[in-house]
Design goal:
Blueprint (H helix, E strand, L loop, with lengths): L26 E5 L9 H5 L5 E3 L5 E3 L9 H5 L5 E5 L3
Antiparallel strand pairs: 1-4, 2-3
């Protein structure tokens, strides 16, 4: 259990779904589903937990909450995720 008195956070743990952080990223991940082997590495390394398995068994992400850190693209074993400059 987390002792909330001794934790230095700007928001409560687990509040990712309440705080849409995707609006301030500069790069965004784009998945090439034809290359995805559905290994789930992106899901495991994403610090926000926004990668999910689609109906066809491949992975994608929820860009409303993606901060654009690039960990998914860096760790993908088949490099099916590319980080591209965000166009606003």
């Amino acid at each position: 259990m987390i002792d909330k008195k001794n934790v230095c956070l700007s928001c409560e743990p687990g509040s990712m779904t309440a705080n849409k952080t995707g609006s301030w990223r500069t790069y965004m991940p784009v998945f090439d589903h034809s290359k995805c082997i559905a290994c789930g590495t992106c899901d495991r390394v994403c610090p926000e937990g926004i990668c999910y398995k689609t109906k066809d068994g491949k992975y994608d992400n929820d860009l409303e909450y993606c901060k654009g850190c690039g960990m998914c693209a860096e760790e993908c074993p088949v490099k099916c995720i590319k980080m591209i400059k965000e166009e606003k």
